[in-house]
Amino acid sequence: MIKNGFQYLVFLLCLQIGFAQNTMLWQGYFSYNDVRDVSQSATTIFAASENALFSKNSSTNQIKTTNTIDGLSGQTIVSLYYSPISNKTLVGYENGLMTVINETDGSMLNIVDIINKQLPANIKKINHFMEYNGIVYVSCDFGIVQFNLATMLFGDTYFIGNNGAEISVSQTAVFNGFIYASTIDGIRKADIANKNLINFNQWTQIATGSWSSIETFDTELIAINATGNIHKYNSGSNSFTAYLQLPQAAVDMRASGNYLLITTPNSVSIYNKQLILVRPINSSQIIDTLVNFTCATIIEGKIYIGTKENGIYTTTISVSSAFENTMPSGPSRNNIFALQTTASSLWAVYGDYDLFYNPFPKDSYGISKFSEKGWLNIPYPKVLGAKSLIRVGINPSNENEVYLGSFDAGMLKIENDIPSFLYNPTNSAIEAIFNTNDVWLNGLVFDKSGNLWVNNSQVDNAIKVLKTDGTWQSFSTKSIIGNPKNTTYGRMSIDKNGTKWTVTINNGLIGFNEKGNIFKKLTVGVETGNLPSEDARVAAVDNNNQLWIGTSKGLRVLSNVNSLLTEDKLTTKPIIILEDNLAQELMYEQFITDIVVDGANNKWIGTADSGVFLVSPNGQETKYHFTINNSPLPSNTINDIDINSTTGEVFIATTKGMISFKGTATSANEDLSNVYVYPNPVRPEYEGTIKITGLLNKATIKITDIEGNLVYETTSEGGTIEWDTTAFGKYKVASGVYMIFVSAQDGIETKVKKVMIIR
Question: Any idea where the PorZ N-terminal beta-propeller domain is (predicted)?
């Protein structure tokens, strides 16, 4: 798929080394709601969410975030530890990856030793970090690993199960010269000074059963078993004695200063050194929201409680103290399933279906909106009972009117950011699946007249339109599909002729134009459409009126959408490219989830497991291929892509978070009244390009110095071009004022702008 393999390799190598620092191109939109672990310094609380970090300074209240844009992995975080001695933060992942962050300069080092161990992949999770004399003891699902913070190298690995077998270790603690490990099969103990702890015989089992945590607290060693029974260690008998039964199993225990904090999903209990409960906290005390606690710590009398749903809550030891919420602005979840942008806002939904369009179990999630005001998260109780919201449609003539498709209850209407009406079978033409109450509504695209088109799965009248006057009209697909009641529909698009293109899971692609009631179908087979699979996923119309069709097994292109109106048979073709001097099919066998066309007619192609491709207008050149290995993408599974046509920002929603790529391909304007040059002036410290935006397509741009000497000339593709401030790529131009002459393709409309460059 690569036109120039060597150049692409160089690009990838540079990107792998430098993408984390090149934050000008990328922006992260992560959720920080689901707090997995916390740690602290004397003044700062550190929190790990699903795959991003944030910290808050208790003195300045400054909040700092760290995510894949900064170089963090997009994998799932399970543990966190800040070392005050080394001023480093350790991040532990579910897959065994460990990231060390130097808090002095923000540099990161990903350590893959655990990932590379010859062990089953499902037992490499990092559960806990415990530091003792400069060595961090890393508790994993297979045993314990030593990590030296000074050398940044791993030491010995302890397999302490029976006969040296792997065993899941939840936590370790050092007490009176011994190291103790709570495991899924008992508590084990060894002399911390023993140089031969790699020998499993040096470890003694002193308790049976499954244990969730163990911690040293002042003069006590405390352990909690899997059923929530708190135990105290008795040195004389070398055993643990039950002390207190919790109402639930504990999810976290830690000593912090003069206090021991024990967390269950519904409670946090804070004990003093005499093991007297000084502050009981119940989740019901947090008003107006349902939360599940995950962990807790304390800094200078302030208690920080992590939750699964709402970031961190802060309170104090005082029983009458209120709760304050701390969380960076972001969407309510990372797994954004669908989104849509306008010039000034972005809407996202979280309901989903699997690769077979199965929405079960249905999701009870809300909605998120991003604008210049930040994130607005509308919770599920306010969406009128609509579950599994899977598609967004924004009225292009009224951005305050938003519609959401549901694979549960119909279509939700939002007015001025407030869910106002739910269209369902009782109040509209929308139909439920036979013998059920399920209404599966997808598509949601507006035509030029402002009518909203949708598809209604597993019913005869599958294509429906909500007209501007509020009336509905339905169209049967029986003439083109043998049994519509067995067909589920996905995305929909509309071309310049008003033809609706609807993808299906088992009937390929359907083209429909109500003028003449024309229905045509493209599916597999040379004579019936030549698609690589009858499971079509997206059909995108490009700027040349070609239809790019993504399926579960590759890509096809219909050369002209007019053929639906003029030809009896529709036939698509693959794009054949040369790779290593061999003819290859572009996107061969790739599961394509989305295709979006930018202002320069490039195609952004999302896949189910291979990240994002950006290909040239004709598909012959792959300009970028972004994956988790060479970009800030947190996942290679792409749910949705959309482009802000005004700014060119490309939003990419994955299963593990949303990021954007700040492209320059904006949609072409109708005239030259909004031509804009930035930055202006160009100051000495600026190293980027000058953008000229607001252009007509195919406009001619000429740039001269003040004396009229031509230094650059190009033709626009879309609404924006870039100039690298060189004279035709040879050398940087000198300081001065430069004239920018813009003329339309027909020469009738012109515009002149100036830009000042200061070297």
Answer: 45-204
